[in-house]
Amino acid sequence: MSDTILSVRNVSKRFGGIRAVEDVSFEVRKGEILGLIGPNGSGKSTLFNCILGQLKPSGGHVTINGVATDGVRPADLSLMGVGRTFQQLSVFPKMTVLDNVILAGQEHHGTMLSRLFSRPDMGLTEEAERLIAFFRLTPYRDTPAGSLSYGQQKLVDAAMAFMAGPEIVLLDEPAGGVNLTMLAHLKERLVAYNREHGTTFVVIEHNMEFVMSLCTRIIVLAQGAVIAEGTPDEIRANPEVIEAYLGG
Ligand code: ADP
Ligand code: MG
């Protein structure tokens, strides 16, 4: 039995002449919180989209629990036990927080045969309310998501990624543009979720304090390639990493 949940082998992605991702390989173990960092334009979001089957890699191979993600439809990801958040907010601003979170679960359940045999809302309301409470958004349950603060909307986004009970969640800059209080709250909730459910996380984030305190291991990309991998302490002390961020 392998304890690897995600395997990325020699993945490359070109856009015309741009080498966005260049021969990237790594594995993620079950229950791990892996950080993916790197300067703007270093290929992090492109790599996520290759991992999730939303972009076809120019080369290489990705498996989640041994299953290739190549060409998988977004709706099938949740069936594979995969959740994700996008760099851009993906809430529907006019819908309530509760409806946004329920909707995130509907695609998943809608494709299952069990739908025929379950209650009309398939338990989605209960599950959505549980997640809303978990992220401490209960006071905003019936508020249109668009009238929440940006940080609160990022929390709604995070809650949505957990609706299908994923084994692994990929988060693209969950703390981007979020104030310090919300940042601490988000981090604490992610750690709690990981501890309670053993869910694996791969997290892209620019906020170093957030990444260093959340993640157990960090991979650094620069110009599409992996330049370093290690514990937060190892990454902090790595001269190549410092150069990638400070050098021109
Ligand atoms: P990051 O998320 O690390 O900031 P991205 O993965 O968004 O980086 O981008 C990596 C590189 O690929 C950048 O040079 C970007 O301009 C380019 N890129 C990303 N998506 C596309 C696309 N759809 N078409 C062309 N170039 C792209
Ligand atoms: Mg990005």
What can you see in these coordinates?
With 248 residues, the protein is α/β, with parallel strands linked by helices. The chain folds into two domains: 1-81 and 167-174 and 200-248, Rossmann fold; 89-165, no CATH class. The strands form two sheets. A six-stranded mixed β-sheet has the order 6-7-8-3-9-10, with helices on both faces. It has a four-stranded antiparallel β-sheet with strand order 2-1-4-5, covered by helices on one side. The protein starts with a strand and ends with a helix. Helix content is 36%, strand content 25%. The structure holds adenosine-5'-diphosphate and magnesium ion. Adenosine-5'-diphosphate binds at residues 15, 18, 20, 38, 40-46.
Key features?
9 helices, binds adenosine-5'-diphosphate, alpha/beta, binds magnesium ion, Rossmann fold, 25% strand, six-stranded mixed β-sheet, 248 residues
List the helices and strands and how they pair.
Blueprint: E1 4-15, E2 18-29, E3 33-37, H1 44-51, E4 59-64, E5 67-68, H2 74-79, E6 82-85, H3 97-110, H4 124-134, H5 150-161, E7 168-172, H6 180-197, E8 200-204, H7 208-214, E9 217-222, E10 225-230, H8 232-236, H9 239-246
Parallel strand pairs: 3-8, 3-9, 6-7, 7-8
Antiparallel strand pairs: 1-2, 1-4, 4-5, 9-10
Helix pairs in contact: 3-4, 3-5
Bound molecules: adenosine-5'-diphosphate (ADP) and magnesium ion.
Adenosine-5'-diphosphate binds near residues 40 and 44.
Query: Please, how many domains?
Result: 2
CATH architecture of the largest domain: 3-Layer(aba) Sandwich
CATH T-level fold name of the largest domain: Rossmann fold
Task: Please tally the helical runs, counting DSSP H or I stretches of 4 or more residues.
Answer: 9
Which of globular, elongated, flat, extended, rod-shaped describes the shape?
globular
